[in-house]
Write a structure and sequence with these properties.
Mean pLDDT: 78
Strand content: 5-15%
Number of helices: 21
Distance between the termini: 57 Å
Shape: globular
Helix content: 25-40%
Radius of gyration: 30 Å
Largest sheet: 6 strands, antiparallel
Low-confidence stretches: 270-277, 330-391, 600-604
Number of strands: 11
Structural class: alpha/beta
Strand order of the largest sheet: 6-11-7-8-9-10
Length: 604
């Protein structure tokens, strides 16, 4: 109905994974790069996870469209099978001829092994992809692990991709599946789109359908992002319903009100309307109001002695202090509770641009309203120390909203922002040359990156609350607040933390979050200079502004030494590890004494 009204060639927000509407955000491109890299390796597992609707199937289909030459794929879409059924399904996907009659696991594995050996002899690389792998029974997962034992003396014969929801990650972390978990050579977790990516996603789909003009206002896109949480599938459903609503009302654009109506229709939420009040109810409200007013008058008459009336008159004329008036009515109200122990917040650190990495010119970040001048910014007032006999501070009471937590964290980067705009705070820090990286793991992973972080508390009421981790040692962690900081035991912090965290890191000079082999320009020159400063890596020959094989080999070696995915693609994790390895000045750190030789492989 609405495509003709808006001039679209077809409905542009179908939830079917149409490859014509493929939209790859930066993280989707990085996930695709992991799959392409894994397809060219021999043996092991590649793990791709993400929440429902974040685009795992989209990435998988994009990978199949770009399948490297010499790769044979078996795709299992329904993994809810017994080990024997799963083996049969794999053999059928590889088009392996099987004997008639009863097929034991041994018969199936022998047939599969023969196929793999024949493929290896002919230079082919078999690849098994299992979608919705979180539904695999434990026995089937163990059988999948055993398939990687099919090998020659030098090569694994089968590469396996596991694609699933976050439950798959938690399943693999269990003790019984630790052997399989240790064989995963590359991992990537897809997160929802941020506000900027949501807008790009909507405009992309409209353009593919033949319309370049904005059919959604900026406020409508912001509302869609809020309702959808950045999940592409939910964005499609909301946009489809919103366009239908705009068509019915004969509007030229989708506005926030239409989006709100569409969200209620999709979610089945009741309209937020007050129920009609009956005349009898209004009479009851009036009587109750009269009784309350009468009671307040009687209490005032009782409490207002002549002395208190004189004090009240003096306060009204400005001759009496307010606290004197309060003390006369409630003497105990003037006593102040003892403050908890919170250390004074440190002064903001030095900005990263004070020590540029390369000789390439760095464009100064534009001025942003609401940023206080660091030279004139007031110092954070010291907060009294907590005495030994006072109750300890509850960690959950130190939690902040995401925007407030980001403001506090940015002080460590030398930025004293008065406000952060609406929406995702990470979208508002790019003008300062900073980016965000969302991760999930343990405190040992946070310690590896060695950057202040926002730790998300375990949600209890659906509200996202964050702690600002400023320092971290073996037994204690320092949490920053707007008015100071406090130290808490690490064990207590881990008990309330969800495992999700966000890092703020310095972007490359051009602002890209990924630099791949084949790239050219000043960012490659900057990356080459950065890699050449890593202890143990000599200067790199070759064209300074071209990402050639020499630079790729050096970067892969560095990534492998740090336990990162050795794919030769420089992304946020690699950049952060490089900064730590060369001891780049001006970067705030959790632990200034932490060795730069730390590796993800040795984390407990």
């Amino acid at each position: 109905m609405y495509p003709k009204y808006f001039g679209l060639k077809e409905p542009s927000f179908s939830i079917a994974p149409d490859p014509h509407y493929l939209f790859l955000s930066d993280q989707h491109r990085e996930a695709l790069a992991h799959l392409l890299y894994g397809a060219n390796e021999s043996g092991g597992f590649v793990l791709l996870t993400g929440e429902v609707g974040t685009g795992k199937t989209t990435v998988c289909r994009a990978f199949l469209e770009q399948l490297p030459e010499g790769v044979d794929v078996a795709l299992v879409l329904n993994p809810v099978q017994s080990p024997n059924e799963l083996l049969t399904n794999i053999c059928e996907e590889f088009r392996i001829e099987l004997p008639h009659g009863r097929r034991s696991n041994k018969v199936l594995i022998d047939a599969l092994n023969g196929f793999l050996l024949h493929a290896y002899a002919n230079g082919r690389r078999p690849l098994l992809i299992i979608d919705e792998a979180q539904n695999l029974p434990r026995q089937a997962l163990e059988q999948i692990r055993l398939l990687t034992n099919l090998e020659t003396t030098k090569h694994k014969l089968l590469q396996i991709f596991l694609i699933g929801q976050p439950e798959l990650r938690r399943l693999l972390e269990t003790q019984s599946l630790r052997q399989l978990d240790q064989r995963i050579t590359a991992r990537f977790h897809l997160t929802p789109l941020d506000l900027e990516e949501t807008g790009d996603y909507i405009r992309h789909r409209l353009a593919v359908a033949g319309v370049d003009r904005p059919l959604f206002t900026a406020r409508a896109i912001r509302r869609i992002h809020e309702y959808s949480g950045g999940i592409p599938r939910v964005i499609n459903i909301l946009c489809d319903r919103a366009l239908l609503g705009a068509c019915v009302t004969r509007g030229s654009q989708v506005d926030p009100d239409i989006v709100a109506t569409a969200a209620r229709e999709v979610r089945g939420e009741a309209l937020e309307a007050m129920p009609p009040r009956s005349p009898g109810r209004l009479v009851l409200i009036a009587v109750a109001s009269f009784l309350v007013a009468t009671l307040v008058g009687l209490l005032a008459q009782t409490l207002l002695t002549p002395e208190r009336r004189a004090l009240l008159a003096g306060w009204w004329s400005g001759e009496t202090a307010f606290m004197s008036l309060v003390g006369a009515v409630v003497p105990s109200a003037t006593s102040v509770a003892e403050p908890v122990r919170i250390e004074a917040s440190p002064e903001p650190g030095t900005r990263l641009t004070d020590a540029p990495v390369s000789e390439s010119p760095v464009v100064a970040a534009p001025e942003v309203p609401g940023v206080a001048d660091s030279a004139t910014a007031p110092e954070t007032p010291a907060v009294p120390e907590q005495s030994a006999d006072e109750a300890p501070v509850s960690i959950t009471s130190l939690a902040l909203s995401e925007s407030e937590a980001m403001r506090v964290l940015l002080r460590r980067w030398g930025l004293d922002l008065k406000t952060i705009g609406a929406g995702d705070p990470c979208a508002h820090i790019r003008p300062f040359g900073l980016g965000c990286e969302s991760e999930q793991g343990r405190l040992s992973h946070v310690r590896f990156f060695n950057l202040p972080a926002l730790l998300r508390l375990a949600d209890r009421d659906g509200t996202a609350r964050y702690l600002v981790l400023s320092e971290l040692d073996v037994t204690e962690a320092t949490l920053d607040r707007p008015d100071g900081r406090t130290r808490v035991p690490v064990a207590e912090l881990e008990s309330v933390w969800s495992g999700d965290y966000r890092l703020v890191w310095q972007l490359p000079p051009g602002g890209s979050t990924l630099i791949r082999p084949g790239a050219v320009g000043e960012e490659v020159r900057w990356l080459r200079d950065l890699v050449s400063r890593v202890p143990g890596l000599a200067s790199l020959p070759g064209p300074a502004d071209r990402y050639d094989v020499t630079l790729e080999s050096a970067l892969r070696a560095f990534q492998a030494s740090k336990g990162l995915t050795a794919d030769g693609v420089a992304g946020p994790r690699t950049f952060i590890a490089l900064y730590q390895a060369i001891g780049l000045e001006g970067i705030p750190r959790l632990d200034e004494t932490l060795a730069t030789t730390a590796s993800m492989e040795v984390l407990p």
